[in-house]
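Re: that chain you flagged

S.,

Sorry for the slow reply, it's been a week of failed gels. I finally had a moment to sit down with the sequence you sent. For the record, here it is as I used it:
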Amino acid sequence: MTEQKDPRQAHAVTGRLTLGAFLARFVFALLVVGATYNPTRYSYYAWAESTGWQWRPPIVFVGVVLLIGWFVCLRATLRSFGGLGLLLANAFFAALFWLFADWGWLPRENVAAISWLALVTVAAILAVGMSWSRLWRAGPARPT
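Prediction finished late last night. Pasting the structure tokens below so you have them in one place:
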């Protein structure tokens, strides 16, 4: 009788990063980044500001949950890229978007669009950082 292997076990053994695993990290990072601040009224920043920055139990609790999310994302990303690498990745995209705005490819007057672009970029950097150690450990694709 042949034994069937569970794909999750194979993933754990090989350490390869799947598209689904990367997307899960990206969604988690986007949730943390977007829940903290976004240009709508549905963010932690807007909520805390609407209360006049009065620290009440629900605001403090959600703030701690967001801090935990930021800690998870930043710790994994800093372990992968290091502080300088994280700074350089953000500087690269900031300079790239500035260049695009200078060329007229980005709407400078639309603060919400620029904010969303920045939020998605930060989430992408965090997702790549959280995934980097798996990508690095897996190395080049090996024939099986």
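What I noticed first: The CA atoms of residues 78 and 86 lie 7 Å apart.

Talk soon,
D.
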